[in-house]
Records
---
Amino acid sequence: MEEKNVTPEATNFIEQIINEDIAAGKLRPEQVQTRFPPEPNGYLHIGHAKSMFVNFGTALRYGGKCNLFFDDTNPSKEKTEFVDAIRADIHWLGYEWARECYASDFFDTIYEFAERLIMEGKAFVCDLSAEEIKNTRGTLTEPGTESPYRSRTPEENLKLFREMKAGKYADGEKCLRAKIDMASPNVNMRDPVIYRILHATHHRTGDKWCIYPMYDYAHPICDYLQGVTHSLCTLEFEDHRPLYDWVGISLGFDPKPRQIEFARLNITNTVMSKRYLKKLVEDGKVRGWDDPRMPTLSGLRSRGIPAAAVRDFCARIGIAKAQSECEYSYFEACVREYLNAHAERAMGIVDPLPLTIVNYEGEEELDFDKNPTDESAGTRKVKFGKHLLIDRSDFSLDPPPKYFRLKKDGVVRLKNAYIVRCEGWNTDENGNVTEVLCSYLPESRSGSDTSGVKAKGVIQWVNAKTCAPAEVRQYESLLRDADFPGQDFSERMNENSEHIFAGAAEPYLAEAAEGTPFQLLRTGYYKMCTEGEKLVLSEIVSLKDNFNKK
Ligand code: ATP
Ligand code: MG
C-alpha cells in the first residue's frame, strides 16, 4: 500500500467535501490541486495569509499541489513590482508553489473558448453601454430586460467579436455577453459581460490585446487549464458559483473544477482592502507598503513578526463558512506566545533615568537566563556596576497605591542583581528628577539572597558605562476605534501611531544579528536592527494587551 493514497481525516468543511469527492472515486488524494490567486495590484496582507493557509495547506495535507496563479485580467492596475513582492511574501510565509502561472498565459485559449461559445449560440456581442447594461439588469425582485442585440446570429457575433479583437472599436463601444437568462433570480446569470474592450497596455502581454476577459469568465477556464480540482475562494464569490459552473458545463470541462467558498478573515480595527492600503502609501500616511504598522505581510515582516506565528494564527482561527470578526488582540496573543518560547530575554530602557549606587564600588558579572521558558537556552553574563540606568516610569515621587517600584525610602530588586533602597535623588532647576541615589544590600544578590529583606518589585536596568544608546520605536494601530458606525477610514486615522524614544540597551543587543527578536524585560518584544551606526529597537508586540487598556 502506498502511504500517499491514504485520505487524511477531515479537519474542516473543505476537507470534508474533498473527502466525499475522493470517496466517490472522482480523484485520488494526491491529485488534489488548488491555486492561490492574487491579483497583482498591491501587496499581500494578513487576509491573504489565511487564503494561502487554506490553499497551500489543503494541498499539503493531501500530498497534492498548489499553484501560484496571478489573476492579471485587469491590465490597467497590475504591475510587475507587485508580482515580485507577492512571490517574496509567499516564500516568507513558508510556502512553495508547484507552478507559477498568469491568467494572461491563457488569453489565447480563453479567446478561442469565447469563439466556441459564440458559435454554439451561448454568447453574443452587445452594443449597449455599461450604463445601459446596468440599467437593464433588473433588481433582486424584478427580472432584467433582454438586450436588443441578443438575437444576433452566431456568424454576425463572430464577425463583430473578431473586429473587437482587431481594434476596430473604442473602449466600451461593444462587449461580449454570455447568453444565459435575464430572468434568473441570480443577477450574475443575467447575460453577464465576459469580454470588454480596453485599449490598455498589459504588464505581460503588452499591446497584443485590446479586449480582456472578465474575471468570472476567465477564472473557471484558468482553473481548468491548470488542472485545479478544488477552487477555494472567499464567500463573496458564492453568488458567482452558478456562473463558474455555467462556464465549465458550457465548455464541457471534464473533470470540472469545483468551487468552494470559505469566510474571509476580518480583524477588528484592521483594514485589509488593497485599495485602502494603497491610499495610505500614496498619501504618505505610512513610509511604504512594508511600514511596520501596515497589516501587509511585508509590514508584518518588517515589524519582526515571525512567519510561524502568522501560520499558527491562521491554523487557530480555523476555516469556516460563517463570516466572523477576529479580535486583533488574538493575533497579538499568538505572536506573543511564539516569541515567549523563542525570543531571548534582554534588558533595555525606553526612557532612561540614571541610578547611582552610593555604596557600590568596582564591577562584577552576573548570570542572566537567556530564556527561562527554554532550559536549553542557558545563561550569559551581564555587567553590573555603580552607575546604572533604569526606566523613568520605575521611580515615583508621588506613587499611587500599590506602587512596588522605586520610591522615597522604598526598596526594589534590580533584575538578576541586588535589592536597592532609595536614599535620595537629584533634580534640575525645574524640579525634574535627574538621578536616583540608592544603597544596595550586599547579601541580597539574586540566587544567593540571605538579606532577609523582601522587595515586592523587580525592575530592569542597564549599566550606564557599557550600555548601547538605542532608538526605541513603539507603535499604535493606524486606525482609532470607530467612534460611530459608518465613520470613514480617513476620519479614523490615528495621526500618532509611532512613538520614538532615546533609550539604552545592553551591549549584547547591539552585537546580535540584524532582525533578532528579544523580549525586553517588562517592556515588550522588540526587533533589533541597525540604521547606519544607530541601534534601533522596534516594537513587535507589547507584553500585555495595550489595546484593551487604552
Ligand atoms: P482586496 O480586497 O484586499 O484587494 P482581493 O480579494 O481583491 O482583496 P486578491 O488578490 O484578489 O485580493 O485575493 C487573492 C485571494 O486571497 C482571493 O482568493 C481572495 O479571496 C483571498 N483573500 C483576500 N482577502 C482575504 C481575507 N481577508 N481573508 C481570506 N482570504 C482573502
Ligand atoms: Mg481583487
---
Amino acid sequence: MATRSAHINVMIRAADKAARKLRRDYGEVANLQVSRKGPADFVSAADLKAEQVLREELGRARPGYALLMEESGASANRDTAERCWIVDPLDGTTNFLHGLPHFAISIALEERGELIAGVVFDPIKNEMYYAEKGQGAYLNDRRIRVSSREHLADALVATGIPFLGHGDGPAFMAELDAVSPKVAGVRRWGTASLDLAYVAAGRFDGFWERGLAAWDVAAGIVLVREAGGHVSEIGGKAIRLDSPSILATNEVLHRSLNRLLPKPASKSA
Ligand code: IPD
C-alpha cells in the first residue's frame, strides 16, 4: 500500500467528488443537454459541472495555485503562481456522450514549470491511477510498472485517430501504415489520459498521438515516467505541455517505435 502525499490526497479527493456527478450524469446520458463547441467537439453539461467541482475543491485546498482547465482555460495567476493544477474534467467526452464506459478525470500538478504529480481516475471501472515525482506510480494503491515487452511483434500500442476538424488524416494513415504491420495490435480507445495510464500499468506497450492538449496528457506523463516508461515527442525531442505530438512507451520499445513513425517534413512535426 502506498503512502499518499498531501498533494495526491487533495487530487484524489477532488477527482472522487467530481466523479460522483459524472457517474450520475453518465447514467442519464440521453437526457444531457449538450452544446456544440465546434464540429464534433461537444461540451456536455456533465463536463462543465465536473470542472466546477474540481475548481472549487482544488481551489479550496490550495488557494494560491493557478488553474489550467479544458473548459475555462487558464486562471489569471497562471504566469505568476509557482504551482498550477492542469485539469481535464472529462477526458473522452465523445465516449461519454455515446454511452461508452471509457472516460476519465485527469489532474496534474505543475511546479515551476515541471510536472510533479498526476491523477487519472476512471469512474466507471473505479480505477484511480496516481503518481508523484520520485515516488512511483500506483493503481488503486498498488504499485504499477510499464510492461517489459521488448519486441514490436509482441507489442499492443494505442493511438488517436484524426476526426472531424482535428488532425491530419493522410499523415495519420502513413503512421498507421508504418506501425500496424509490425505490432501485435493497434487500439484507439478515445481517452488519451487513460491511454497513458494503460502504458504506465503495462496494459499498452506504447502510445502515440498528435495534436493533444496539455490537460489530455499532463497527468499521464507523470504516470508513465514514474512507472519506468519513456515519454517524448515523436522524433525524440523532450516532451513539453505544448508539444505537437507525444510518444510514450515502456523503457525498451521507445527507439523502435519512434523509428517506425514517419517524421513529417513540415512544421507540424
Ligand atoms: C480527447 C481524447 C481523445 C483524443 C482527442 C482528445 P476530450 O479529449 O483524449 O483520446 O484523441 O484528441 O480531444 O476532448 O475528450 O477531453
